[in-house]
Structures are given as C-alpha cells and as structure tokens.
Write the structure tokens for this entry.
Amino acid sequence: MINVAQVSTTFMPGTPFAKNALKDVSFAVEEPSFVAIAGRSGCGKSTLLKLIGGLLQADSGSIEVESFLMGGKQRSAAATAALVAMAFQNPEHQFFAETVREELSFGARNIGKSQREIDRAIREMLPLTGLNDSYLLRSPFELSGGEQRRVALASIFLMDTPVILLDEPTAGLDPVGRRRICAMVKTMQRKGKTVLWVGHDLPEMVSLADRLLIMAEGRLIFDGAPEKISADKALRDKAGLLADDFDLDAVLRENYGILPASDAYLKLKRFFTGEGD
C-alpha cells in the first residue's frame, strides 16, 4: 500500500542554510493500519508526510502508494488526490466556502464524485462529527474551533481515499474536541483506510496506533509496535517522548477519559513505564 525506499531530501542545498530533512528513510505499510509518526520538532515528520502525499519530491529514493510512484510527473494532481488525502496543521484555516455543505463537498467533487454521492456520504459522516443537518447551511466561519476542525477533517475523509495523512490533527483542541477527532479517525481506520498520524501527543497516538515510527534528526530510529520500546528509556529520551514531570495517570484521565484497568490504559502504561512486561 505504501512503500518508502531510501528516501533522502535536503532543503536549500548548496547554501549555508542547507538542511538534511530526511536521511535514507525506508519503511513499508502493506495493509490498512494506523501508523503514528513521532519525534522532536524539526525531526522530519511533516516533511515525510508531504513526500508521501506527493506535495514534495525527494532528492533520492522513491515513494509508492498503491503501486503508483508519488512525486513523479506521470500523475496529475487529481489522480494523486484520489489516492492520498492530507490534512495540514490547523486545516480549518483553509476554509473558503460560504456553507458547511460546500466546504464538505469541495475535495470530493474535485476528484470526480457527483453531488448526489457526496450528499449521501455527508449524511453518513455527520453523526461522526457530532453535528447535524442544521449545520449544513451555516457558514463554517461561524462554528466553534472544535466544530471547524471536525468539518475540516470530515471534508478530507469524504474524499474516500485509501490513505489519509494527518499532521497534528488535534493540536490546540480541548479534551472533548480531541476525543471526537480520535473517534472520527479510528472509525475511518475501521473502514479499511490507512492512517498516518504525525504529532507530539504520545499518549493520544499510542492509544490509537497499531504501529509507531520514531524520527530523530531526519532518520527513522524505531519502527514497530509501540509497546516494544517500553523498556528503552534511552530511545524515548532521544526522541523526546517523555518529560521528567510527566504524570501519565493524570494525562490519561483528564485529557482522554482513559481510566485505570482499561485496555487502552494498560497499553499506555506498558509503553511509558515498562510495567507489565
């Protein structure tokens, strides 16, 4: 489904400001899954996401999605958009339509879906967003911040692509807003989508993900099940995954409503402390 092979890229090459954004990164996602990509700011996470989405072209190596080469000249933007949908950080900042219905329809219509198909999909999607039909004729600019984020992500999901790329989709939201977004994304995965989620919020991502990629200084330094690095404090420190004053129980309870003894809690406890291994 996704094959990233020995990808490297440098920004502003040949200048005093040259930066090796990615260095020989390789991994494959062979079946629908939820993959979290973590690491310190500037480690290359968002660059990797843009390369997979075909928005940037690597200096070397290759990226294939559904056996199609990304970043090449042989594919139109519309053809690429039918394979991969990407939500940037704060996607609601890109709103432009007069109504929520038009905002939800825009991406799907641009890849060839009929308005009838789109309206049917919107009716199915609305319950996931926590909104109802009364919102469809409202201006998206009049919604709350959490409602705007859900509409923005729903517009991406309505494109019905096999791969969904999310760059910090819950950033800036309150706990209730984060939970709604997490539920929406998990629902898309259950529908057979592959989700790549870039972020800094490890409890959130680890509670959702089947697989964790950790980036550091442009390199992929870990690829596997989240619980496999539970006992590797040096690796977690290198990737900036855990602050000294981190109170796991409080974070899970207050931000995510995850209580002790639940499956999600036990998974996260193993990840951060190694307890139960």
In short: The mean pLDDT is 85. Residues 2-74+202-273 form a domain with the Rossmann fold fold (CATH 3.40.50.300). The chain is about 35% helix and 20% strand.
